[in-house]
Amino acid sequence: MLITLIGCGKMGSAMLQGWLNDATLDADFAIVEPHHDALAWTSSYTNVRLFDDCAAAAAAADRPSQMVVLAVKPQIMDDAIATLGGIAGSDTAFLSIAAGIPTDWLTARLPKNADGSDALVLRSMPNTPAAIGKGVTVLYTADAPAAIAALAAQLLTAVGAVVTIDDEGLMDAVTAVSGSGPAYVFLLAETMTAAGIAAGLPAALSQQVAEATVAGAGELIAASDDPPSQLRVNVTSKGGTTAAALAVLMDDDGLAPLMKRAIIAARDRSLELGS
User: I want to staple 70 with a disulfide (CB 3.0 to 4.6 A). Which of 12, 96, 193, 246 is the partner?
Assistant: First the structure.
């Protein structure tokens, strides 16, 4: 089985590392990435070949790819698709991890199958914790055969949890919550650091305790059977310091309406990218 990865930046590299660590994935990998200096670590793998472009990958292939993973930024997807050439066969499926690009947009641009039918396209939305195997990816499998859907899930499981949906219309909101979500958490750590400094902490100490608190709270959510709402109640003493802070954060103009506006803005931008 041949898997071709188009684009191997941070997310693509994380996925490739996961694939190579998966002993149950019996595959060869063609990696198309013009800037592959950072991929020198793959030289010890006999089942990985690096190419500057799709034409070189197609010329070197002894069989069509079973799946082509499109891991380029949405803004250059059109250009990437235009260079695919003979890299795919009539049974090749395409798995996109690009934010905001719907399957019908891709289908209209991807090469047709030999019989004139549309290429099979699956769509997913991973997030940046995939770089350490802690990501979550939402996968839309469209009408893919069970074996192809299972292969896509296996490839994505290499970088974290996979959740499958059957309504592609949810993907823009998914992008807003999970795809962009890590940035919101990073911003939380930043703002807690700045607030700690304003409250009198030395900058280095404020950063250390803020970042460790955010990271530890995330681990606690993952490890606990309780929902975040209950975890919040568990650490809030009536009339205490946490209650005083939450009274501000949970006010009518506090965190909830701000986060709602942020999520909707991200969802709307995802819709724009796919139009």
Answer: 96
